[in-house]
Fold this sequence. Notes:
Largest sheet: 8 strands, parallel, barrel
Strand content: 15-25%
Radius of gyration: 24 Å
Number of strands: 19
Strand order of the largest sheet: 8-9-14-15-16-17-18-19
Oligomer: single chain
Amino acid sequence: xxxxxxxxxxxxxxxxxxxxxxxxxxxxxxxxxxxxxxxxxxxxxxxxxxxxxxxxxxxxxxxxxxxxxxxxxxxxxxxxxxxxxxxxxxxxxxxxxxxxxxxxxxxxxxxxxxxxxxxxxxxxxxxxxxxxxxxxxxxxxxxxxxxxxxxxxxxxxxxxxxxxxxxxxxxxxxxxxxxxxxxxxxxxxxxxxxxxxxxxxxxxxxxxxxxxxxxxxxxxxxxxxxxxxxxxxxxxxxxxxxxxxxxxxxxxxxxxxxxxxxxxxxxxxxxxxxxxxxxxxxxxxxxxxxxxxxxxxxxxxxxxxxxxxxxxxxxxxxxxxxxxxxxxxxxxxxxxxxxxxxxxxxxxxxxxxxxxxxxxxxxxxxxxxxxxxxxxxxxxxxxxxxxxxxxxxxxxxxxxxxxxxxxxxxxxxxxxxxxxxxxxxxxxxxxxxxxxxxxxxxxxxxxxxxxxxxxxxxxxxxxxxxxxxxxxxxxxxxxxxxxxxxxxxxxxxxxxxxxxxxxxxxxxxxxxxxxxxxxxxxxxxxxxxxxxxxxxxxxxxxxxxx
Length: 546
């Protein structure tokens, strides 16, 4: 009997089954036609059946004749859904399109895993057990951050990641678009941001201080048309895309393009080629605030997201402390120290976003020196930031480093490909709880939810993203969706079943007994010893994909 992941609130199974055939029809209320079309697409990919979708004028006439029906039910919670599978039909109800998207994803899990293949399976029969499911998410922000600044991900890879988020009923993709190592979004007013800032001469190998570079240029950026495509692709799958423009630190790519943004005589002719925290940061002149405001205006025009991330993390103050002009500026502004100066900077940007009807969200360092009214916090350094921000009445998205950092290694094995962080297992990820234990009950509503963070200093491909994200992201998805008590022992067999869906989807996830040979760190025993061996390994995992 197929199981669901994330686990639903209520579920009842019955005897009998519904059989999908090439003659099955789909009808959808006009408001739910997009998720109905997504179901049609997935069923076509997996089965080869091209099922008609009836909406608009034909909906009322055909709804009771269609085997699969999508209806509106305003009594259901936001993003909630209900469906009933009988031998004769499948009836899906939701109050709005996102709920229907999640219903569609849950419904697909009831079919054999081959439904997730990207080309039709030769399976002779497609059926699902009869079942009644009613469900709604625990948190409204259920997401993952993908760092495309350290290593650029082409549009096709971002689209694929969006598909995998939707598969797990995650609703937010946070795109980390700018950093010291690269500027990844076209800004028409300031073309040098991508002309200069999108390519670095090389990348650091490994995490150790003093590690050599690889000698290979790396770069790329998204045109504004690319961004529109990503945003639309996400919206069609229930995913909100939140952009991040880093400030006032993590600024070298921007300063390399426009040196007047830097502090004093500090300069750079290219994005940074090292990992870690860079002392080069933005200055605090009015012209720099204006520059960044213009950048954000173009970003706002591309992203409909209510929240715009402005970074605010890991901003070393040495340049500010040692610069005469910065110290003079602090006196002009009546500020006592550099922490208050960073707070002033963040407040100015936050106020600008507010004039455009948007909310600033930043990493929990923005709490230092005082948080701007209306700003929200990404709490990553444990749970102290979440507790402080929510207690003060600010909204919080939890992403603590001890459970939600998917770039961290997954065991102590020497073959692990990612040489950073503390060990974070699937069980560790499953323990994620966005709500601080000692938060007052009347402040819990300020915890919007949580997200996993996937930094890519040591991940330079879609295969690397697969390995780092899955199956840990499956565990985080359940932690953010499922209400009530959770039990890892109960989760494990459902995850084991779910891995067949990831296999059919072509996801190269980490196996429970460690990395496969081609997933291991370069130079370790067991890595493919020849091109032929590597090709054989690749053939073995892709045989079921296309």
